Amino acid sequence: MTASPAPTAAMIAIGDEVLSGRTKDKNIGHLAELFTLAGIDLKEARIIGDEPTQIADTVNTLRRAYDIVVTCGGIGPTHDDITADAIGAAFGLPVGEEPEALRRLAASYAERGIEFTEARRRMARMPEGATLIDNPVSVAPGFRVDNVFVLAGVPSIFQAMLDNVLKELPTGVPIVSAALDCRFPEGDIGGPLREIQKSHPGTSIGSYPRFDGTRHSTELVIRSRDAAALEAARQAVAAMLADFEAKSAS
Amino acid sequence: MTASPAPTAAMIAIGDEVLSGRTKDKNIGHLAELFTLAGIDLKEARIIGDEPTQIADTVNTLRRAYDIVVTCGGIGPTHDDITADAIGAAFGLPVGEEPEALRRLAASYAERGIEFTEARRRMARMPEGATLIDNPVSVAPGFRVDNVFVLAGVPSIFQAMLDNVLKELPTGVPIVSAALDCRFPEGDIGGPLREIQKSHPGTSIGSYPRFDGTRHSTELVIRSRDAAALEAARQAVAAMLADFEAKSAS
């Protein structure tokens, strides 16, 4: 993977249990935070079901559109774990037992005196040529094919694997941000804020309303890859808020 | 919208703040639960940024693929609220102030003695021909164009709007489910479970591993639109688990 000032990425969370609402995804938010710190632009995230064609089509669309694709879910030992085969289909690669993955699994189960069942052997299945992603939590590795990183869905395992993936990834110029709490509603500040955004094109200014049931408030977040541009926009927003404070006090 | 035994749906959460990890999406999980109860199949969910082209392209792809599309986010009064214009672009419709929305907003701000600013008027902007989705929390309505339902991103407002949307939607035959806790790891039960799935084609059996840092356990979930098929599969899984219990006791 070549270095880039701002690598782009997409994430795919795979699992019927997320689409049914039974499981609430935690992996997308975790990856989003880490990628932001690493200067990698997460451009989209998709949650899809345990459907071979949907998985393969989604992987193919996203791996061509972005520098990095991370998937989670569907690499365990049961019949509904079909991600490895779907990734093989996406790349047109045969899928079989990867020798080093098989060795690690066999050794781990032998050491623990647990039977190495046919179901457990499935966790060594990967597309030909895949490289392993270490799993320090529960041994069964994830894998990488080209720019696609295939990780487990259980959050503790996903997070441990992602730490290993991050070591291999190109990092970008991190986006720095400044947040200002604003006690005035969006409808009051919307006009002036639009003018500030126009005159600070190197920044992205977001306005995030909150509503606690009785009162609206707003968090204003300025983001930029350029610290000086960030600071200039932050000062402009702070000055606008001071104006509103002065007006509301008078 | 025509009734269907199992309407299909997709959800789009719009917002840079979710992709940066600053905000954790709660709306997808909420919609997933409600749609499951209503017998509507949520087939995928996407999180995308505040990018007009990305929003329009995503809406166009999903509204053609599924019966129902729900979006959240980007319909407030500030410059980064661009969803209404992006939906207009997706449908090739002009976007302007919707009279009834404008009337509701003007009346609400007049009543509260709050200035009806240019920024606040933006919340009346909708594609021509859109119908309103009531907002009992903070007045500014969402809207519907064809099979696309455009809702607010703030969770309390999203949820209130979604309750109103659900009244208009076709419901399907609800999927019923049964969950069994399994103290045996997936690698032990994987083989027999696969056989049970094969002999119960009217059901979908999911195996969801959990790992608490020291011990693996598994939740087995059987889902079906047919109560008798569900019960038959549940009994087969329960019998398998009883076998494992007997073996582990001996």
TrEMBL record, chains A, B:
InterPro entries: CinA, FLAD1_M, MoaB/Mog-like_dom_sf, MoaB/Mog_dom. It holds the Pfam family FLAD1_M. Residues 10-172 form the MoaB/Mog domain. CDD domains: cinA. This is Molybdenum cofactor biosynthesis protein.
